[in-house]
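Q: Could you fold this chain for me?
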Amino acid sequence: MLDDVIDRGRGIPYRFELEVHRPSLPVRTVVREERVPAKVEGTLFLKSHKIPRGVEVPLRLKGTGEEEFEIDWDAYLAIPHQADRAYHLRIEAAREIQAQRLGGP
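A: Sure. Below is the predicted structure, expressed as structure tokens.
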């Protein structure tokens, strides 16, 4: 557990716009800044698994309030083929940016 606390403190900062789905509450959009643990980014092993726009991240409820949740990084890492999925989302995003620069669709 101490490793997780240290890892989060030193992790890479992100600004997330999360679409939060909670039982019996309407879907909300929440903007939150969080540090992503190095074990998620892959930076400890000199490789990168940047978290692209559009990826789904599991949340862990911490209470009944609308803002009482945290991103469950262990569950995120446990999703099968998550690194491949993230890689393909990054490629798609890069292609969209390139198309916009070239004036394409």
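A (continued): The chain is about 35% helix and 25% strand.
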